[in-house]
Design goal:
globular, mainly beta, 7-stranded antiparallel β-sheet, 6-stranded antiparallel beta barrel, 33% strand, 15 strands
Length: 248
């Protein structure tokens, strides 16, 4: 079984975003999902100078939670969204804080890694964003078969690089909390359902809209990278770190 970070593989994506997708974004993101109405989500995009596209979740007026692998390895990052006038907005972060237990070589080393990062902005984000509620630190892991909703800007078709950039969502059942300390969360879909390239850093929400986890991995059948399983880092065990970071 092969796992992959949910990230773009070619730097042409960012170039396409600057030239085309920011003007007329195609229907895309979340394999098998549905479009999220504008203004109904705390989500935005996280872009890098490496050409990668990720998703992020607004958790405070000046802070976004994403996956650590989305904001490491490059030299510059931007938050992207559309203003109320429909025009693209790009913002440089004030500060990016990587979880101290994140290890980029965790797969090869077979070690635990907490793939989370907080992006703090230079000024308050627009109040048009919904601010996500975080789970309490003592919340138990999600029970098997609980249905959670994934949101992200990733590919809706793995074979079509231009199907990235539009916010979509899908609701899937929990397979089981997984891993040491029950820090990971697995969601299972039928064929061609789940997160895909570009959905890393996106939110996994419960039925009340509470942000329970951040998407970090996806996998598919055979050579596919997407469409059967989605993995997230659960946030309840990391509330202390998130709260401390937000106070900086």
């Amino acid at each position: 079984m092969r796992h992959n970070h949910v990230r773009p593989r070619k730097p042409v994506i960012l170039l396409a975003l600057g030239a085309t997708l920011l003007v007329t974004p195609p229907a895309g993101a979340i394999v098998g999902g549905q479009t999220v109405p504008a203004g109904d989500s705390p989500m935005l995009m996280v872009l890098s100078d490496r050409g990668t596209v990720c998703s992020g979740v607004v958790i405070a007026p000046d802070a976004v939670l994403t996956a650590a692998h989305c904001v490491t390895g490059g030299s510059a990052y931007r938050l992207h969204w559309r203003g109320t006038d429909g025009k693209p907005v790009m913002e440089e972060p004030k500060r990016i804080t990587i979880h101290p237990d994140y290890h980029s070589d965790a797969i090869a080393a077979r070690s635990r890694s907490i793939d989370l990062a907080v992006i703090q902005t230079k000024r308050a984000l627009p109040d048009t964003f919904t601010q996500s509620q975080l789970p309490p630190a003592n919340q138990p892991p999600q029970a098997k078969e609980t249905r959670l909703t994934i949101q992200g800007f990733g590919l809706s078709n793995e074979s079509q690089p231009d199907s990235i950039g539009s916010l979509r969502q899908i609701t899937l059942p929990v397979v089981t909390p997984y891993g040491q300390g029950k820090l990971l969360l697995w969601l299972s879909g039928q064929a061609n359902q789940g997160a895909c390239t570009g959905d890393s850093g996106g939110g996994i929400f419960d039925r009340d809209g509470v942000l329970q986890a951040i998407t970090v991995w996806s996998e598919g059948k055979g050579q596919a990278r997407c469409g059967t399983m989605t993995q997230g880092i659960m946030l309840a065990p990391h509330r202390a770190w998130i709260d401390k970071t937000l106070k900086r």
